[in-house]
Amino acid sequence: MKLYIGGKWSSTWTMRGWLACKLSGLDFDTETIFLSREDSREKLEAVSPTGRIPVLLHDGQRITDTWAIAEYLWELAPDSDLWPRDRRARTAARMIAGEMHGHFFELRYSLQMNLVKRWPIANGIPSNVKLLDKPGVRDQVARVQKIWRTTRADWGAGGPYLFGERFCFADAMYAPMASRFRTYSVETDPVSAAYIEACLDHPYVLEWIRGAEEQARELGWDAVAAWP
Ligand SMILES: N[C@@H](CCC(=O)N[C@@H](CS)C(=O)NCC(=O)O)C(=O)O
Fold first, then answer.
1. What is the pTM of this model?
2. Which structural domain range is residue 40 located in?
3. How many angstroms separate the CA atoms of 204 and 167, rounded?
4. For residue 38, how far is its CA from the centre of ligand 1 (angstroms)?
5. Nearest residue CA, atom 20 of ligand 1?
6. What's CA 14's distance to the chain center, in Å?
7. Which residues contact 160 (CB under 8 A, 6 or more apart)?
8. Residue identifier of the C-alpha nearest atom 16 of ligand 1
9. Residue 104 is part of a domain; what is its CATH number?
10. Does residue 183 fall inside a structural domain?
11. pLDDT bracket for residue 119 (50, 70, 90)
12. Residues within 6 Å of ligand 1 by CB
């Protein structure tokens, strides 16, 4: 099984796909396609029917779309931690994962993930206000926190993750969002702050972040940290 991923500091969807593979407990290799190189488009089109990654290559099939990859893996490994074991919890997890998959465009676009960047950065940019004040962003920041608060209250007993003790694919979907809140110093309520901490401290998430830092050291930390 092979997963095509992007640069770890910025590729949110491939981070989610990689977390899904880790959660499945199945063996997999990765191959990296950096996304902003001259030959990126050509490489993407060679491996992906949609020209987007992640793509999971398994059993002669190329599976695109993070959500489809997670469901495919869950069919192969239904006893894994990909989804909560309880059906009602699993439904709630799919609902919020679905909301992440299909919404929050303004927030995602305005506060791009960069796992090695810390805001405020130098160069005279005074605060994160100009990003948060872009149309739609503050409402979406509030909505994400509401999702975290209500899910933690309804399903989170017994552990620090959205559905309690086990980090699942819903957490994987929100991990890049949690990282944005940290990177851009977004003010949060205490429940969301604790969740962000727990999510970004999960061993799989930390493994991905360490990989991003390693890539940044190889490619030039300052250049990577300055993106986008
Ligand atoms: N809805 C897709 C989104 C995939 C996506 O947009 N991936 C980005 C990388 S994070 C990509 O391949 N971008 C290629 C490009 O922009 O040229 C999914 O869930 O996998």
1. 0.96
2. 2-80
3. 10
4. 17
5. 65
6. 8
7. 194, 195, 198
8. 52
9. 1.20.1050
10. yes
11. confident
12. 6, 11-14, 35, 44, 52-54, 65-67
